[in-house]
Design brief:
By secondary structure, this protein is of the alpha/beta class. The chain is built from twelve helices and six strands. The protein has a six-stranded mixed β-sheet, with no helix packed on it. β5 and β6 form a beta hairpin. The radius of gyration is 28 Å and the shape is globular. It starts with a strand and ends in a 10-residue tail after the last helix. 31% of the residues are buried.
Amino acid sequence: MQSAAITFAPSLSLSTRPRTLPNGNLHFAPLVSTSAPRPKSNSIWCSLNHNSWLSLSGPQSDGILARATPDNAGPTEIPNPKSSAVDTLVLGSLFGLWYLFNIYFNIYNKQVLKAFHYPMTVTLVQFAVGSVLVLTMWTLNLYKRPNISGSQLAAILPLAMVHTLGNLFTNMSLGKVAVSFTHTIKAMEPFFSVVLSAMFLGEFPTLWVVSSLMPIVGGVALASMTEASFNWAGFWSAMASNLTNQSRNVLSKKFMVKKEDSLDNITLFSIITIMSFFLMAPIAFFMEGFKLTPSYLQATGVNVNQLYTRSLIAALCFHAYQQVSYMILQRVSPVTHSVGNCVKRVVVIVTSVLFFRTPVSPINSLGTGVALAGVFLYSRVKRIKPKPKTA
């Protein structure tokens, strides 16, 4: 295999004779003899222009420009330990908020769904509150309002549809079974991610990834067989939530691939939230009607003020924890974020069991633990890249 040589042509030369390093891949040629022909090899010619930018030219280059540091520049700045400590403190605070918002969302959302058995309306309220927050942030310039083209909206629409279904199915499951059981089933998200990526993206898993899926599937099966609150409606709703949520990730890779169409995660989530509200509204009104009116709630014996307050808190926490999740993703690697998400699921399961005093048998606990351990293992082995095949 030929190795591309890199040739530097500095503006100022101390010698008119070319110099070659021992490996023969790096040549220093002065600009004095500009009429000399360039070597007929896979060389990349480099020269410093008057703006101190390094210009690359050659058969494999795309006109790359790199900034060169002048010789009279000051010493390299040493990272400030105080700045690193502040960044670590901020990151730790974001993780804490991520977990806290998740805990409050699941607790208040479960309380609402136990008293108000209309998951479509509950989902609509959460999208409505999220849309108001997004529009407020854009209006007050707390976050830059994007300029969205029609082609971008068309590409985002499938993501919004599966996002809407994913949250609806999650609420349907939370209304039927215990919070801990719903999140145990949702631990199977990696399984659906691997299957869908192989089917639609051609990304086939490594043996390590397949091995990590076995404890996930086995743990969820064991927990399901021993779950006190088990019913098929809650089980299949959580499974459908896994399918739609991972479909959103696959669709985002498949359709949002053009550089000019790319959006940052927070902006994309904000747009999807607004679109999900408009998608969910007609379905909720048609299927469940207007059930959040004070007169209807009073007629069913529900504490109106308490339900409104808990619904608002749940909706605020729902939007907040997803916003914070994307803020963390901008600061850490996807692997670190995946591990943090696994820990978050453990925290939510434990706190919900303690708060709602959910009966849990030893075998059920073992199944949940094995599934979560599989998720953690999956997040670690996913970064192992297969060795490239040599010709």
